[in-house]
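User: Sequence in, structure out. Go.
Assistant: Echoing your sequence, followed by the structure tokens.
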Amino acid sequence: MIKDLTAFYSKAALNMKRSEIRELLKVTRRPDIISFAGGFPDPQTFPVKDLEDISCQLLREKGAIALQYGPTEGEAPLREEIAKWMSGEKASIKPENILITAGSQQGLDIVSRVFLDPNDFVIMELPTYIGGLQAFNAYRAKMIGVPQDDEGMRMDLLEKVLAKLAKRNKKPKFIYVVPDFQNPSGVTMSLQRRKKLLQMAYQYGFPILEDSPYRDLRYAGKNVPAIYSLDTQNQVIVLGTFSKLLCPGLRIAWIMAPAEWMDRMVVAKQGMDLCSPTYTQLLVAEYLRRGLLSRQIEKIRKLYSRKLEVMLNALRQHMPKGVKWSKPKGGLFLWIELPKKMSANILFPQAIRNKVAYVVGSAFHCNGKGQNTMRINFSYASEQQIVEGIQRLAKMLKENM
């Protein structure tokens, strides 16, 4: 009998880390806990009746195709509909620029597999999405976080990082950004900084990975052009998903990339799963073809806009002095900053005892910092639960200040 099974693991496997969010969700699934931890959509937004109608028609008319293997790139009708959707911001997007994935996390893994060798540099916002950190860490990349403010990643600090790398004859394999209602901070990158980011990408010669799951969830203010829509030199890769707009259980997302890079991504995906589920792809393709997505987005915006307002009001009414929070105009999350001497990590077990949950902010930092921060979600809980949960959280913080 083998005594030490870990001796057989690859270096990549030994380097893998569990998702702190997924682990936290095991604790927060208890029905008595008000959870602000996950990025779950509200189930009442799921278009069950529309999907039921389409499913019946799909199985009746195209069952033999829908239940069969499909091409690695994805089903042509879905790729065409996504290309049309994205062409609203940039007319040159074609179906051959689209690769269907099983959620954006697979997209992150594919991009990492294609671009990253051990010790390659990846630059990202500080804080950033934990799923990105997981993907890049699995391929043993060296991650550099650039702090952000209310306008997104600070370009002055980014320029210093790039200059330092250039002196060592190094550059990042790509820069990873979530520019619209960022997860976890809720911050949206300004137009000026998007243009500056592209300028530096051209100057130093690296791709930009634009992760865009929340772009359509704007509740106030004017849209800022997507980074890919401003790109004139084919250096932007986009990750898109229907998990927040339709329902996450479908596991339908996509990569949009220049055609020159798409071949390697398709080969990488073939080694993972051969193809994404044909049935759910054709289901979503017909949903888009019928023009139902715009109506669905308006429904979600109306619901989440109200929930965001309720949470912001509750924070203003109940949080003690010294606690700060972001005020996003869209997305699913708020970012809370505690006084520097407080630790959201240490307080988490106490929060669970008080039957309220959040995600510790350190999980979103590639440099191990951010212990005095936390991310909270407003899309999943009811309005009543939001108010009660913020009261519980505020009471706990007051007791520990």
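User: And one key feature?
Assistant: The chain has 14 helices and 14 strands.
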